[in-house]
């Protein structure tokens, strides 16, 4: 299955859940950096009050959401950068935010990129993950995945299986709209220490992998 088909062939929340356990890597021209996706959030488009495209808002800064599924959408908040992938057909602005990975490849380089931060602090949040990759700009925004240094491995033989995937409310969503704030559109590996805000007491044996 190619990226265009994968990111358009079912509802965005189902795509997001299916991404859990898939390898996400970034080639920095010297080596491969990355790990297994352990946390991701779905954003459901024009009706979703938490989505950047809510109400049909469209601007150069969120144009990536309006491109065809499989297009990279990188956005910035202050000095931090976040990695999303557009879902659905062109002009149906939905997407998935990759929030955290369980690191596997290029860990030493990622630690250097994070100024020595290691362990769970390496990649247990969306901005931390991008810092670990050494990404401090939006250069890859609007590129299709297959035309970029990012790879999301869609081969099911390479996917890690979680003992349990939790569906929960998204992080940091404005409670002024409790309906969307509480929708269970964040998916994560139960007990994985790299999930953002995972408490040490809740961490599972083998990081929650089957």
Automatic annotation (TrEMBL):
Keywords from the UniProt entry: DNA damage, DNA repair, Hydrolase
UniProt-recorded name of the protein: Putative 3-methyladenine DNA glycosylase
EC number annotated for this UniProt entry: 3.2.2.-
EC supergroup of this enzyme: hydrolase
Family membership: Belongs to the DNA glycosylase MPG family.
InterPro entries on file: Formyl_transferase-like_C_sf, MPG, MPG_sf
Cleavable signal peptide: none
Matching Pfam families: Pur_DNA_glyco
NCBIfam families to which the protein is assigned, alphabetical: 3mg
CDD domains cross-referenced by the UniProt entry: AAG (cd00540)
Organism superkingdom: Bacteria
